[in-house]
Design brief:
With 448 residues, this protein is of the alpha+beta class. The protein folds into 4 domains: 83 residues, Phosphorylase Kinase, domain 1 (2-Layer Sandwich), CATH 3.30.200.20; 203 residues, Transferase(Phosphotransferase), domain 1 (Orthogonal Bundle), CATH 1.10.510; 43 residues, no CATH class; 88 residues, 2-Layer Sandwich (Alpha-Beta Plaits), CATH 3.30.70. The chain is built from 18 helices and 13 strands. The strands form 3 sheets. Strands 1-2-3-4-6-5 form a 6-stranded antiparallel sheet. It has a 4-stranded mixed sheet with strand order 12-11-10-13, with helices on one face. A 3-stranded antiparallel sheet has the order 7-8-9. Strand 10 and strand 11 form a beta hairpin. The longest helix has 20 residues. The termini are far apart.
Amino acid sequence: MVGKKLKHYEILELVGKGGMGVVYKARDVRLGRQVALKVLREEITGDEDKKRRFLQEARSASAVTHPAIAQIYDVDEADGTLFMAMEFVEGQTVRQLIRDRELDLLGAVEIGTQVAEGLGKAHSVGIAHRDVKSDTIIVTPEGHAKILDFGLAKLLDPGMGGPDSGTSNIETMVQTQAGTVLGTVAYMSPEQARGKSIDHRSDIFSLGIVLYEMVVGELPFKGQSPLDTMHAIAFEEVRPVTVIRQDLPADLQRILSHCLRKRPEDRYQDTAALITDLKRLKESLETGSQRPVTFRERIEAGMEWLKFSVPFGVPGVAVALLAIALLIFLIVSKDEVGTLLVLLLIGLPVYRHVRNRKTRMIGKIVAKVSKLEPVKAIIVKGSLITIIVEEAKASLYIRVNSLLDAANKKLFYGEPLELVIKDDLDLDEANLQAMLREPGVRYLREDL
């Protein structure tokens, strides 16, 4: 399309391609200024309902003005082509800066502060970006951060629903092969990954991921597949940046931890508090002064260090301390009969507790999984848990596999638990009676 015109926009050169469409550098011949012209995909243009909702979103987003937001100038259609004219921003994306190692800690904090201020402006008028990531933030040569693609984020949701309209189609997202969608998965909030409704606090989580990526050069949640990554986001704890790089300040870890809480109500409730903390951190970095660390923060930091740096985490430390105390007692004790009795009194309950741990873990998994709506039956044979469902959805896989992973991490010995989900069983009367006669049926839905 280079050299052609769309309405009064003369297309000059190709800038880039993405999952949403193609971006060109263009010239607005009416106003005599350069713009970024994003030509949207044909499947968006061809869907009248999706196009209508997109135009509504884009018009709302165009009303938001802030130095950290790339302004939307125009949304129009010409010859069946839907396009958006935006402010043309010279510079590099945050991802490029990370890749080229052009960011230091102070620069990352400054970018994070500017982006938080821009998001705060949008949130104040009821608009959430929903796709904050290192590719949608450009930094100009003067160091000014600009957030791109306000008004486009809802197009990443195949359901095109609003914050209160329910879940997005997670299965469709996982199966989509477009690079932009797969790249987006790594920056999702837990509520997005689990297909729940979202609000502005989802943007705060995604910004926390970008901050984490800027300071350590890697994403906090990674998996071999999009589903694995979504599982990590929804259920796994992030490794503290102070464990990866011990020279990073504790205040930075506190800010990131507050952004990346799994439950929205545990995060920063708005960007104002986040901006305040980032500015204090920037001031301490510039002046070299350090805020006194409270006793509570020291305890929390120590617990995080134990969780990620010591085998078995806090329980492992407790068992080690108990073993050391018992060893000291045996060394200093002179009463052999008393020592034997103490060993029996302590050892037998511990042995029984450890030996029955797998059974308890299975019981907890069965109790939680049986409450999920599509589950028909649960059968346990040895270390294998078979879950029979009406329909196997991605959200169900995420939930039950997270329970399985959590249980296996708590097992001290023996074979790990395995789990199979089956949705192809026809539970007619004969099959039902045969199944009930088999040992290991731990749950059967009442209507069956």
